[in-house]
Amino acid sequence: MVVRDGFVPMVVREVRQEAEHVVSFALARRDGQPLPEWEPGAHVDVLIAGDLVRQYSLCSTPSEPTWRIAVLREQNSRGGSTWLHDRVREGDIILVAAPRNNFSLDLSGERFLFVAGGIGITPLLPMVAAAESAGKDWSLLYLGISGRSMAFTEALRAYTPKVVLHRDADSGVIDLEATLDRLGAPGATIYACGPAGLLAAVESYAGRRENCCVVLERFTADPDSVAVPQGDHAFVVETSDGREVKVGADESILDALHRSGIPALSSCREGICGTCETRVVQGIPDHRDQLLSEEERQSGEVMMICVSRCLGDRLVLDV
């Protein structure tokens, strides 16, 4: 096995069926060294093959000796979930990067409401545990199609009655607004993860309520944020070894690099995961990701090459 920079070999200690089409994997370092510290909301990058990377939320707790990720077999898998479900078994070695966190939990508030849809339960499990340990006032609303499709419901029984499970197959489509009101969402901090439709509904709800803060973890990007605007232009990217790559008006920097045989890790291709973050040596990026802060955008030091482009005619990148 060839180890890529930033990735370490991990042993799969356990493979467990958590629900219909959902399997979890418990991971430990192959060399026996302690795992790096992490906080609720963190995810890890898993190197599937070549330059294909996928992100999976850590759904164990930071105090556990192994990391656990849970993977839904996607109907339209681009290779990640199918590879893990079909090929990875206990005792296998896979390459995993250190945890990163774009969905941090801030426990300084008084009231918390966690909203999960389907596999979106994974980053919320350690958040729930942290809120309970801190003695916070919290509730969890967990939505699914059926009981068979909802992972970790047995583990959540320990938090009854703070957990509300809604199964469409049993109760029909939820009245989300009335349910959030009943659970005390106004005045609470809402952490939500799940399908785009659910997140849009939660965000809309929070916008209509006073003192209602919402923090989202998205599976997919807002299409308007990554669309190539009419009149976009071609430009040139120079690599760290002096090679020049022309980026067409209708292609990404990432695709142009791959077309030229220059390797670059990537995953979401939507500017929401951070896998393709690249240092900018020279030039002004046109940022179109949904990760960087305004301060990071203004500094121009890094960019997401899967969606972001160039405001001028040339960029020099550390690739």
From TrEMBL:
A Pfam family the protein falls into: Fer2
SUPFAM superfamilies: 2Fe-2S ferredoxin-like (SSF54292), Ferredoxin reductase-like, C-terminal NADP-linked domain (SSF52343), Riboflavin synthase domain-like (SSF63380)
InterPro entries xrefs: 2Fe-2S_ferredoxin-like_sf, 2Fe-2S_ferredoxin-type, 2Fe2S_fd_BS, Benzoxazolinone_Detox_Enz, Beta-grasp_dom_sf, FAD-bd_FR_type, FNR_nucleotide-bd, Riboflavin_synthase-like_b-brl
Ranges where the FAD-binding FR-type domain occurs: 5-106
Occurrences of domain 2Fe-2S ferredoxin-type (ranges): 233-319
Signal peptide: none
Coiled-coil residue windows: none
One MF term in the entry's GO annotations: 2 iron, 2 sulfur cluster binding
Gene3D superfamilies, sorted: 3.10.20.30, Nucleotide-binding domain of ferredoxin-NADP reductase (FNR) module (3.40.50.80), Translation factors (2.40.30.10)
Protein name: Ferredoxin-NADP reductase
